[in-house]
Design goal:
alpha/beta; Aspartate Aminotransferase, domain 2; Aspartate Aminotransferase, domain 1; 3-stranded antiparallel β-sheet; 12 helices; binds pyridoxal-5'-phosphate
């Protein structure tokens, strides 16, 4: 055991090796089996995974893709988004949400966030809808869904599609409905650090609309419905067999891992209740799956360096809102345009969060946050 004179082990931000070791035999067998089958791209392991993931996301159909970004691109294209169209989303997200809109030749139109949930403020959507608006792309950030009822309501009144960015929200729920089943399509990422992680890149589109699914299926594989008969101008956005095999194995564990994240979040909530930082809010009626446990403080840099001195990892999701990124300067935005997104970007700190995190590790994190608050 660690005595007072020893330095305690570092607390990592995520621990992908711990998870691999917990299911190593099954993963190794599935991966070797995949190599023997030589179904390296799509194939039966991908199909087996898709048939498990669709019901998990509450949808009729799931289609594996090469990444979460390609899932977003394909879902938007399949929803008919193209040049000249406008798609509404928030600037407090990973840049991929916005890049996918740009890949379609469409223009991203931003709406500020609701600071409690960090997701799009539904009340501000109506005001930015124009006759060019074609879709709303809510981002279920950190693992909590956006407020979907009013979003679906604006969308149906104004004739818009809804494409959910559920890249951080596997298993999240809104009023009993799963992320990925509420809009016309849901887009997931299986990047290794996501709640359901492949051993490389991966993603999926979920939908219960057979025609939208047909277009995604074609577009991910060169627009072909039949080999060498290219109906649409498509892409090489297929999920690899190895990733399908890994993800298929992991589907047996995702619920337990999600519950472990939620239990860890409850411990942080409780232990930080009397500490001068703002802990995240799980909005009533939503099931937060805590991809990220983000707290807020007015001196983020100070807190992060204090944690680093105690060998505790932390992160920022995300430090620069997309409307202030150089890559999207063409949109003509400046500081002050989306004040809630900007203050979130200035204040959020993500604490270590992964299913295998131990109460001891969390106690060290909480002690450090508390010591920093009392010392400053
Ligand atoms: C990770 C992520 C993506 C992109 O997924 P990739 O698999 O990395 O392409 C898109 N949106 C959000 C909110 C994400 O967190």
């Amino acid at each position: 055991m660690t005595g007072p004179s020893e330095t305690p082990a570092p607390v990592p931000f995520v621990d992908l090796r711990a998870q691999y070791h917990s299911i190593k035999d099954e993963i190794d067998a599935a991966v070797i089996g995949l190599f023997e089958s030589t179904q390296f791209v799509l194939g039966s392991e991908v199909a087996a995974f898709e048939s498990l993931f669709a019901p998990y996301a509450g949808a009729e159909i799931a289609l594996g893709t090469s990444s979460g970004t390609s899932a977003l691109h394909l879902a938007l294209l399949a929803a008919g988004i193209g040049p000249g169209d406008e798609v509404i989303t928030t600037p407090h997200t990973f840049i991929a949400s916005v890049s996918a809109i740009d890949y379609c030749g469409a223009t991203p139109v931003f709406v500020d966030i609701d600071p409690v949930s960090f997701t799009i403020d539904p009340a501000a959507i109506d005001a930015v809808v124009t006759d060019r608006t074609k879709a709303i792309l809510p981002v279920h950030l950190y693992g909590q869904t956006a407020d979907m009822d009013p979003i679906i309501d604006v969308a149906s009144r104004r004739g818009l599609s809804v494409v959910e960015d559920a890249a951080q929200a596997h298993g999240a729920e809104y009023a009993g409905r799963r992320a990925g089943s509420i809009g016309d399509a849901g887009c997931f990422s299986f990047y290794p650090g996501k709640n359901l992680g492949a051993y490389g890149e991966g993603g999926a589109v979920t939908t219960s609309d057979p025609e939208l699914a047909r277009r995604v299926r074609m577009l991910r594989d060169w627009g072909a419905e039949e080999k060498y008969h290219h109906v649409l101008k498509g892409f090489n956005y297929r999920l690899e067999g190895v990733q399908g095999a890994v993800l298929r194995v992991k589907m047996a564990y995702i619920e337990a891992w999600t519950e472990a994240r939620r239990a860890a979040a409850r411990r942080y909530d409780e232990w930080l209740a009397d500490v001068d930082v703002r802990t995240p809010t799980e909005v009533d009626g939503r099931r937060h799956v805590y991809h990220v446990y983000a707290i807020r403080t007015d001196d983020r840099a100070g807190l992060m360096s204090f944690l680093a001195d105690r060998d505790i990892a932390s992160g920022i999701h995300y430090p620069i809102p997309v409307h202030l990124q150089e890559a999207f300067a063409e949109l003509g935005h400046g500081r002050g345009d989306f004040p809630e997104a900007e203050s979130a970007a200035d204040e959020v700190v993500s604490l270590p969060m992964f299913p295998e995190i131990t109460p001891d590790q969390q106690e060290r994190v909480v002690d450090a946050v508390r010591d920093w608050c009392t010392s400053r």
